[in-house]
Design goal:
The chain is α+β, with helices and mostly antiparallel strands. Helices cover 27% and strands 33% of the residues.
């Protein structure tokens, strides 16, 4: 995919205004466990609400996707890959939650982000979160750095690499006492799986739709 961030952004805004790929895309990267595959919707749930930011950021190779790496010493989800995001506070709009958390985690000024639209909310059973993902882009090359005690590193992954089928693979994990096939993205030697991979799968499906006419 050879397209600039400035030309991609309006295409994404238009595509995000149409019906989304939704849980069909999530399922491509969901653990092959029947209970998890049937338990994606946030509807009518007593869950903790979270805002998540899928940020497109310019770099030398074109648009890149921003991911964070949790520190290895943490007691929960050590070393795992995620998008900037966190729990909603004081009834704030969920898009504001995503921007606030990105500022707290990676030094991203909310004023520098152009929000393009929302993806499909996703229920995350282990944490009882209902994650609401938003797509945005930072037109300028803002200086990103870890600014939260839980964030060890920032990954800026070229979008064309994620769109290539090669990083997607599957391995077996022991989940809830059972061996389960778990799809994941291999990103610069890091394993991106679970809810992050599921949200990423829908985002990439949207990008493919938005750029189909340019391929």
């Amino acid at each position: 995919m050879a397209v600039s961030l400035s030309s991609l952004a309006p295409r994404l805004t238009e595509r995000l205004g149409d019906p989304l790929p939704g849980h069909e895309a999530h399922l491509r990267m969901a653990p092959r466990d029947s209970a998890r595959q049937a338990d994606l919707s946030v509807n009518a749930r007593a869950c903790r609400e979270a805002g998540v930011l899928l940020l497109l950021h310019p770099d030398d190779a074109g648009p890149s996707v921003v991911l964070t790496v949790r520190r290895d010493h943490l007691s929960d989800h050590a070393g795992q890959i995620s998008f900037p995001g966190g729990r909603r506070e004081n009834g704030e709009p969920l898009s504001a939650t995503a921007l606030r958390e990105a500022e707290e985690e990676v030094n991203l000024s909310p004023a520098s982000v152009d929000l393009l639209g929302a993806l499909t909310p996703l229920f995350i059973p282990p944490s009882n979160f209902c994650a609401h993902p938003f797509v945005g882009h930072a037109p300028s090359t803002a200086s990103l750095r870890p600014t939260d005690a839980e964030v060890g590193r920032i990954l800026q992954v070229p979008l064309p690499r994620l769109l290539d089928p090669a990083p997607r693979t599957t391995e077996t994990h022991l989940l809830n006492g059972r061996n389960v096939d778990v799809p994941y993205y291999d990103v610069a030697g890091h394993t991106v799986w679970g809810a992050t991979a599921m949200m990423l799968a829908e985002f990439l499906a949207v990008v493919r739709d938005a750029t189909a006419s340019t391929d």
